[in-house]
From TrEMBL:
It is found in: Cell membrane. It comes from the Bacteria. This is MFS transporter. The keyword Membrane applies. Residues 8-390 form the Major facilitator superfamily (MFS) profile domain. The keyword GTP-binding does not apply. Keywords: Cell membrane, Membrane, Transmembrane, Transmembrane helix. SUPFAM superfamilies: MFS general substrate transporter. It is a multi-pass membrane protein. It comes from Pelomonas parva. Its main location: membrane. Pfam families: MFS_1. The chain crosses the membrane at residues 45-63, 75-94, 100-122, 134-155, 161-183, 213-232, 238-260, 281-307, 364-383.
Length: 395
């Protein structure tokens, strides 16, 4: 990776860590104290968070189109302000209406400032050669929960949940905004990357076959559903297998390192494969682990956590690299927003739906997640490489 690109990856990866830690990973630590002071139930706080995810899904295509035109720097700088505003509104919330309003602003920020926007920003800078950069920022931001959860807990203990929100808002203005402002400007004027001015092959890539796009949208929706469901319910799921409370915590802690290990594997050995092949390998890991856990129970819980985490880590990268490899860089941001719209909606519903399955069927709910993952694998097996696709895309 060239020195200039290394700086971009480090800058954007750090900004992404801040964005994820202060949004996606915030309710897990603050939902209870928020609910207690605002006089609402914890599910109401999570409902506001789910509403933010829905808004982020709807905003994604619009944000992606802006990045296609202007590059990621101005969009991500504006997003830093939106994150700060949403967190400030959360800090002064007085009831359910103001809480939902704050999370609505957070939804706008999440839809224009998390991975999809970062991936589009890198593609706008590097075109076909963005794969290693996409992998790099996911390696850094993969530690968002590792950083975010303890820091939020410390801030809440020291200053209360409102003080924690103010602190995160300040970090977006003092750290996130300068980092995003440090990103290079897109090298080409917007007109030179407009779809109607691309060479014929590139213009065709920007308008992908509907069948392939639909298959990818299904894959992304399924994998985000499973990832979010496991993130929300893994401790309860492991406890249902008979794992001891101490073991549940230790095993759950394996998922994060396994995700990073999967991303390192993609950055090293699997980078020589087309992203479609690495995605197929990754899609097999969750159903393999889920079947083992459903059949054998607690003794293989650690193996399940490792397999699920590694597969999820690689598939996170695939969400950025697969559309690039299959369709090309032209119109990437807008197309990425459209492809991820079903995934964001599935993500919003996952904690509730999988919670119902777990309550009704116990560990047998694993067969549902395994079947969904296998359907994603089947979709990936149906997707074909475009004629003339490079076998080893990216540097």
């Amino acid at each position: 990776m060239q020195p200039g690109r290394t700086r971009v990856v480090a800058t954007l990866g750090t900004a992404q860590t801040l964005a994820w830690a202060s949004s996606y990973y915030l309710p897990a630590m603050l939902a209870r104290p928020m609910a207690g002071e605002l006089g609402v139930s914890e599910p109401t706080v999570f409902a506001a968070f789910s509403a933010a995810l829905v808004i982020s899904a709807l905003v994604g295509p619009y944000s992606g189109r802006r990045i296609d035109r202007w590059g990621g720097r101005p969009v991500l700088m504006a997003t830093s302000g939106l994150f700060a505003l949403g967190l400030a509104l959360m800090a002064v919330a007085t009831g359910p209406l103001s809480l939902f309003a704050a999370w609505a602003v957070m939804g706008l920020a999440m839809g224009s400032g998390l991975y999809e926007a970062a991936f589009a920003s890198l593609v706008r800078l590097y075109g076909h050669e963005a794969r290693s950069a996409i992998t790099g920022i996911t390696l850094i931001a993969g530690f968002a929960s590792t950083v975010g959860w303890p820091l939020t807990a410390v801030l809440e203990q020291a200053f209360g949940w409102r003080g924690a929100c103010w602190a995160w808002a300040g970090l977006h203005l003092l750290i996130g905004l300068p980092l995003n402002a440090w990103l290079p400007r897109a090298a080409l004027p917007a007109s030179s990357v407009a779809i109607d001015q691309q060479p014929p092959a590139e213009a065709d890539a920007a308008d992908p076959p509907l069948r392939t796009a639909a298959l990818l949208a299904w894959v992304f929706a399924v994998t985000w559903f499973i990832s979010t469901a496991m993130a929300a319910h893994l401790p309860a799921l492991l406890a249902a297998t008979g794992a001891a409370p101490g073991a549940v915590i230790a095993i759950g802690a394996l998922v994060g390192p396994a995700q990073v290990a999967g991303r390192l594997l993609e950055f090293g050995l699997l980078r020589r494969l087309h992203p479609l092949y690495s995605a197929r390998i990754a899609a097999l890991l969750h159903p393999l682990g889920a079947a083992m856990l459903a059949l054998l129970g607690a003794p293989v819980a650690a193996a399940f956590a490792l397999l699920h985490g590694a597969g999820n880590g690689i598939l996170t990268i695939a969400k950025g690299t697969l559309p690039l490899a299959l369709f090309g860089p032209a119109g990437y941001g807008h197309r990425q927003g459209l492809l991820m719209l079903p995934a964001r909606l599935a993500q919003a519903l996952a904690p509730w739906l999988f919670g119902l399955l777990l309550a009704g069927f116990g560990t047998a709910a694993l067969w549902f997640s395994a079947a969904l993952a296998l359907s994603a694998l089947a979709a990936l097996l149906v997707v074909r490489l475009p004629a003339g696709a490079r076998r080893h895309p990216g540097p």
